[in-house]
Specification:
Length: about 200
């Protein structure tokens, strides 16, 4: 186990890129193995105190981890929520050609999670490469304000036919806000703005 831990530590320290949580998944079993070995050693002691400590630890771990399940806590914004937002966009778009853009920390401006549900809805969502032709654009934003750093994206500028970043500070967000014809806010989730040319 020490070799497993040290080789993992050395391997990760040599990696120079960003380390995301899923990169560490091969190390996740290690704490469980260590706790299992310690509890097994305590259980096999000749004294009753070892068994009491083991049962106490197992009961405590079961209690602590059982409080973390979804039935007790919301897991946040999930795929069903993305589907619900997509259904509302599809219903609102009707038979008009439209496109979507996502403004959040993922930098997935083409809103691929939402686009999947919109494409299977049978509505007229245009290709993720074409923001110039539709007359309607839905902006899915995690912040309630259409502020300048977020709206300076190629997708929005292509739709508007205008370079937003060439405008004065504040002028770009007010220009975009005037184009909003409808908006929705989803509890625990994004704001959705419908803009038209």
């Amino acid at each position: 186990m020490l070799l497993y831990f040290l080789s993992s530590l050395i391997g990760l320290s040599l990696y120079t890129g960003d380390v995301f949580e899923h990169y560490l998944s091969f190390v996740f079993p290690l704490p469980f193995i260590i706790v299992g070995v310690i509890l097994s050693l305590l259980w096999n002691q000749r004294f009753i105190l070892g068994k009491v400590i083991t049962v106490g630890c197992v009961a405590t771990l079961l209690y602590v981890y059982s409080t973390q399940y979804r039935i007790n806590h919301s897991l946040g914004w999930q795929i069903d929520d993305v589907k619900r937002v997509s259904e509302i966009i599809a219903e609102d778009a009707g038979q008009k050609a439209y496109n979507v853009v996502l403004l959040d920390d993922t930098k997935d401006y083409r809103a691929m999670n939402y686009r999947y549900f919109l494409e299977i809805s049978g509505t007229r969502i245009v290709s993720s490469d074409n923001y110039a032709s539709p007359d309607v654009l839905y902006i899915i934003a995690v912040n309630p304000d259409l502020n300048s750093p977020e709206i300076e994206t190629r997708e929005i500028e292509t739709f508007l036919g205008k370079r937003v970043r060439d405008m004065q500070a504040g002028e770009n967000s007010s220009y975009l806000s005037k184009k909003v014809t409808r908006q929705w806010q989803f509890s625990g989730g994004p704001w959705v703005y419908r803009i038209e040319r």
